[in-house]
UniProtKB/TrEMBL annotation:
One of its GO terms (biological process) is secondary metabolite biosynthetic process. SUPFAM superfamilies: FAD-linked reductases, C-terminal domain (SSF54373), FAD/NAD(P)-binding domain (SSF51905). Keywords: FAD, Flavoprotein, Oxidoreductase. The keyword Aminoacyl-tRNA synthetase does not apply. Gene3D superfamilies: FAD/NAD(P)-binding domain. Residues 10-386 form the FAD-binding domain. The gene is FGENESH: predicted gene_14.152. It comes from the Eukaryota. This is BY PROTMAP: gi|472585669|gb|EMS23220.1| salicylate hydroxylase [Rhodosporidium toruloides NP11] gi|647400643|emb|CDR46310.1| RHTO0S12e02718g1_1 [Rhodosporidium toruloides]. One of its GO terms (molecular function) is FAD binding. It holds the Pfam family FAD_binding_3.
Length: 437
């Protein structure tokens, strides 16, 4: 088969959450620039959808989205910048047993405002950018079979016909079946890829801005992290600033909150239980929690740092490859970064202009190998730092309750995440792919 008759690169995107839809739209951008690529998104649900109220989009991921032509998505759903437009969080001691309401840090972004969006609104905007007929719903991928002509994807519902692709991008989240299949197929320790209880729960809820202003005062900072012993509360605006999202974390090392759950879950729970969890916090924090009408409790799970995220022409991205705790507000951003890099890798000339299917397969393997060696470690490092950040907010890290040391650690950690030069890194890795071709 000659270069002129080589078929378009077929990409199967497994999962339609934030990482999966960003992957699809990053590929769409490459197609609009002339890349000969076809893609299909396979989603297990009846429609695209996200659970949870708020998600943080840091300066690094905002820059990547604008490079992907998705700046309008952010502008449509992000809260308008306030007087401190580059503020990520102001840090205050909320635990009345400590130094009550002492503010000790203002952690700021770099050259982009630190954004927070409502997950459902964000996903809706991404969906609106998708071309019609690129998604197949009620298709939960369970395993794959590789062969010379591509990769066959098999679905949990055996009545569904299998699907064919040249490369499979697994973005089906923390509960991914394909991740488990990959580890089983590679003969790796199955326990090393399973989601684990991170030993935190989170109480979640929304309050109107008017109520927030009543508690904290007109013009009060909205992005606040109220820290305390074994628990912390964060607040930030969503829905264009009309609502304030509240997430109140409780450390649960003895698994008293876990019950029989073995994977991420959420459920309504009595407000009285939440108030008891934060009985030590100051009056304003308690008034804020009391203002939540119907609080829900969420079990926080993460996956271990994976040693492998590729198998031949199959690759894991987003939460499928590095699901983390939310304490650095960087989980969604890492999925967005993954999509940006991988879409460029798949459009590399060594892949799209390969002289034969076997040459294309070899080029795909080289590109995905570089993804694993050069891209994945960043997501893994964010996993570790996010866990450590949760401990820091609750005086359980090496900094203890030394506010000066906490401030220093926070600014260094978040700076490393936010100051990432994605364009420089892309050039470096694309050159590396070309050098190995």
């Amino acid at each position: 088969m000659s270069e002129a008759t080589l078929k378009p690169l077929r990409v199967a995107v497994i999962g339609g959450g934030i990482a999966g839809l960003c992957m699809a739209l990053a590929l769409q951008q490459r197609i609009e620039e002339g890349a000969d690529i076809q893609y299909t998104v396979y989603e297990q649900s009846r429609k695209f959808g996200e659970i949870g109220a708020g998600v943080s989009i840091g300066p690094n991921s905002q820059r990547v989205m604008r490079s992907m032509g998705l700046g309008a998505v952010l502008d449509a759903v992000a809260a308008p910048p306030g007087k401190d437009k580059d503020l990520w969080f102001a840090y205050r001691v909320g635990d009345a047993g400590e130094n009550q309401e002492k503010e000790f840090a203002h952690v700021r972004g770099t050259d982009a405002a630190c954004g927070s969006v409502h997950r459902a609104d964000f996903l809706d905007q991404l969906i609106n950018k998708l071309p019609p007929n690129v998604a197949k719903f009620q298709h939960r991928a369970s395993r794959y079979t590789q062969h010379e002509e591509g990769v066959t994807i098999h679905f949990e519902d055996e009545n569904l016909p299998s699907a064919e692709a040249d490369v499979v991008v697994c973005s089906d989240g923390i509960k991914s079946l394909l991740r488990g299949h990959m580890y089983q197929k590679l003969g790796l320790d199955m326990e090393s890829q399973k989601a684990r209880y991170a030993e935190w729960i989170a109480w979640r809820g929304l309050v109107p801005r008017e109520k927030y202003n009543e508690i904290f005062g007109e013009g009060a900072v909205e992005n606040i992290m109220h820290v305390g012993t074994g628990r912390h509360i964060l607040t930030f605006p969503v829905r264009g600033g009309s609502l304030i999202n509240i997430v109140a974390f409780v450390r649960d090392e003895e698994h008293k909150k876990l019950g029989n759950h073995t994977s991420p879950w959420s459920e309504p729970r009595p407000k009285a239980e939440m108030m008891e969890d934060f009985a030590r916090f100051n009056d304003r924090c308690k008034a804020l929690l009391e203002a939540i009408d119907n609080p829900s409790i969420w079990g926080i799970f993460a996956i271990p740092q994976l040693t492998r995220v590729t198998d031949d022409r199959v690759v894991l991205i987003g939460d499928c490859g590095h699901a983390t705790t939310p304490h650095c507000g960087a989980g969604a951003g890492q999925g967005i970064e993954d999509a940006y890099f991988l879409a460029h890798f798949l459009a590399h000339p060594s892949i799209l202009r390969a002289s034969s299917p076997s040459a294309r397969n070899a080029a795909l393997n080289r590109a995905l190998s570089i993804y694993e060696s050069d891209r994945h470690p960043r997501g893994a490092k964010v996993q570790q730092w996010s866990h450590n950040a949760g401990l820091l907010y609750e005086f359980l890290g090496p900094e203890g309750n030394d506010l000066g040391k906490m401030k220093e650690t926070l600014e260094g950690r978040m700076g490393w995440i936010w100051e990432f030069d994605h364009e420089k890194e892309l050039r470096r890795m694309m050159d590396k792919i070309g050098a190995t071709a």
